[in-house]
Amino acid sequence: MTTNRRLLMIPGPIEISPGVRDAFAVPPPGHLAPDVIEAFGASLAMMRRVWLAAPSSQPFAVPGSGTTAMEMAVANLIAPGDAAVVVNTGYFSDRMVEMLRRAGADVVDLTAVPGEVPNVSRAEGAFDDYARAGKTVKALFATHVDTSTGALCDPRPLASLARERGALSIFDGVCATAAERFEMEAWGADVYLTASQKAIGLPAGLALLVASERALAARDARKDPPPLAHDWHAWRPVMQAYEARKPAYFATPPTNLILALSVGLAEILAEGMEARFALHERSARALRAAWSVLGLRSVPTREQNAAHTLSALRFPAGVDPSLVGRIAEHGVYVAGGLHPAIRSEYFRVGHMGYALTRTDFLMRTVEAVASGLASFGGAVDGEGAVGAMLSSLQADTAS
């Protein structure tokens, strides 16, 4: 395979594997075609395994984006007047707050400096404040990795807190699922959601989520149904039918993506979830070594709060947002800043999924970033940065 084409190293969509590409690039089949029914049913079963979810949980794969999956979670679980706590780590946490407010929820928005993660004690305090007011929190929402800042939160204590206080826990895993450690059943989380174009490793177009029994029961208890297109009650019989390898219809799924989903999930499971988490951690460490040589500082100032799926990197002195275009001139596409408060101060490099199996992709990325920085006239050790990355990868492999 040639490596001279452009590389898509943004935080999604990402580079996809040859197997996924081949599964996707077929003449569009009908949604009731036998191969689509088989791929759909197999994919739903594999989602539980990738999510490390309980057998009783319900996976959903519906047309849409990560935002669609977020909206589905809110629409099915939150009614007007419900109390919700949001552990806010950036742009997409802000979006969740807006969705909740539009749904009529009473929202406590626990914000943080871009790149930081609110302490669990702040969430505990929000629950305590509601309790003193005689009100019960319906749900806690958090973004596992915020794509805008590269901030990584630890879902485990948040899920535990929600369970202890009788609340649901909902995690936006759009830039985390199948890359960052998440044990849905063991941690007692109730919803974990993502989109197809991130670490799942597909083209964009599928909203993916898994709901626990508690979350499904909460939807069952709703007095007023959510909008039809987002209603789990409309979609769940279709998911159940496909998993039983029976034809079903509510709305037409993107059939090529369903074929690709079954291949992508099978590739992830063949690798193994422990190996998958380790691969992303190992690659992130190696890239951090390269960024250090290049004089790049991460937006998350504490390593434990830095995602393994992307790097959010501040511009050095004398460098401006035109760096993103200068990197692209060397055949690698990275992303500009997204968080409104610091948009002009940083850029983002995605590193998840298939690209991590290609050391040549990672080398080209580091080289392109180094070349872009060098175009501003400063001294840049691109060769040293690549060497630091390779040394880190080799040390991890040897250990």
Provide a descriptive summary of the structure in words.
It is a single chain. Helix content is 43%, strand content 15%. The two termini are 30 Å apart. The protein has two domains: 7-13 and 273-398, Aspartate Aminotransferase, domain 1, CATH 3.90.1150.10; 18-270, Aspartate Aminotransferase, domain 2. It has helices at residues 18-24, 34-51, 66-77, 91-102, 120-132, 155-164, 184-187, 213-220, 232-243, 255-271, 273-293, 323-328, 359-374, 382-398, and strands spanning 7-8, 58-63, 83-87, 106-110, 137-143, 145-146, 151-152, 168-172, 191-195, 206-211, 297-298, 310-314, 332-333, 335-336, 346-350. With 399 residues, it is α/β, with parallel strands linked by helices. The model has no long low-confidence stretch (mean pLDDT 97).
Strand content: 15-25%
Could you name the CATH topology of the largest domain?
Aspartate Aminotransferase, domain 2
- Structural class computed from helices and strand pairing: alpha/beta
Q: Got a strand count?
A: 15
Q: What is the count of DSSP helices, taking H or I runs of 4+ residues?
A: 14
Q: Biggest β-sheet, characterized? A: 7 strands, mixed
Taken together, the total number of domains comes to: 2
Write down the CATH class of the largest domain.
Alpha Beta
**Spatial extent as radius of gyration:** 21 Å
Q: Average the pLDDT over all residues and give the rounded result.
A: 97
Helix content: 40-55%
> Judging from the principal axes of the Cα atoms, what is the shape?
globular
> CA-to-CA gap between the ends?
30 Å
The helix-strand sequence is EHHEHEHEHEEEHEHEEHHHHEEHEEEHH
Q: Can you tell me the residue ranges where pLDDT is under 50 for at least 5 consecutive residues? A: none
CATH architecture of the largest domain: 3-Layer(aba) Sandwich
- Any idea what the CATH superfamily of the largest domain is called? Type I PLP-dependent aspartate aminotransferase-like (Major domain)
Instruction: Kindly report the oligomeric state of this protein.
Output: single chain
- Spatial order of the strands forming the largest sheet: 2-10-9-8-5-3-4
